[in-house]
């Protein structure tokens, strides 16, 4: 059982109750999940890092799983999300922690390091590279101009629309579709792509029926609105973060991405990562790893390799 020995508790942070899974003793490693995910996405790494002498801690982020979901979209700004983590680090009794982020968790982790580098010993980010703020380009408008209105982030903007679609299709079906997506390119939220719930979606080999049931049960309970509100906050985050235009992330960093990851195939991203852009904004970037034949959910698809990559970096500090 991948979750053996993991304990669970609720921690009051930043005005909400946050569910936290943890295991092990030693230096603290804080794992930050993405969408549509939970602490559970890190189950393999929690066990793996705990066995190597670390205290592995993985919360359900605001709006997900057993953590409180605020009803208002305004409660999901990047400042709320980073504030939750700073409060969690305080509640864990730590001055500094190692941070590992994936997908939206990587975005939150980049901003945690941007706003509070004093609280992070070193960062391992997975899948989503740092995206410097462009002073004259709102993120959602930019995405629409590249991909059109059917792109999933554009579709997520309208309150309630994606939720209605997901309710019609069924929680488990939607999660199966999202986890099984392996096209190295943009994800469009269309009826054709999602298909009919009568159509059986096979699970990827790295996800068991037990795993998908865990995710589905938690999203049945919480709904998708909390997670989708992260996307609805993109333009507001852009407005609020104007003071950090041009700012660098000054934390020792390792970046890992799969070569089939849709985020790695966003126009301009590979050039930015490999031709000096990422290093310019993350001057303490020490390593970039591109894992071949691996998709977006790298920490679940290649669990032991991911754990090794994390350990090989953080053991140096």
From TrEMBL:
<protein>
    <recommendedName>
        <fullName>soluble epoxide hydrolase</fullName>
        <ecNumber>3.3.2.10</ecNumber>
    </recommendedName>
</protein>
<keyword id="KW-0378">Hydrolase</keyword>
<dbReference type="Pfam" id="PF00561">
    <property type="entry name" value="Abhydrolase_1"/>
</dbReference>
<dbReference type="GO" id="GO:0004301">
    <property type="term" value="F:epoxide hydrolase activity"/>
</dbReference>
<dbReference type="InterPro" id="IPR000639">
    <property type="entry name" value="Epox_hydrolase-like"/>
</dbReference>
<comment type="similarity">
    <text>Belongs to the AB hydrolase superfamily. Epoxide hydrolase family.</text>
</comment>
<comment type="pathway">
    <text>Secondary metabolite biosynthesis; terpenoid biosynthesis.</text>
</comment>
<dbReference type="InterPro" id="IPR000073">
    <property type="entry name" value="AB_hydrolase_1"/>
</dbReference>
<feature type="domain" description="AB hydrolase-1">
    <location>
        <begin position="27"/>
        <end position="133"/>
    </location>
</feature>
<comment type="function">
    <text>Epoxide hydrolase involved in the biosynthesis of cucurbitacin and mogroside tetracyclic triterpene natural products (e.g. siamenoside I and mogrosides IV, V and VI). Cucurbitacins have cytotoxic properties and exhibit deterrent taste as a defense barrier against herbivores. Mogrosides are nonsugar highly oxygenated compounds used as high-intensity zero-calorie sweeteners; they also possess pharmacological properties such as regulating immunity, lowering blood sugar and lipid levels, protecting the liver, and acting as antioxidants and antitumor agents.</text>
</comment>
<dbReference type="InterPro" id="IPR029058">
    <property type="entry name" value="AB_hydrolase_fold"/>
</dbReference>
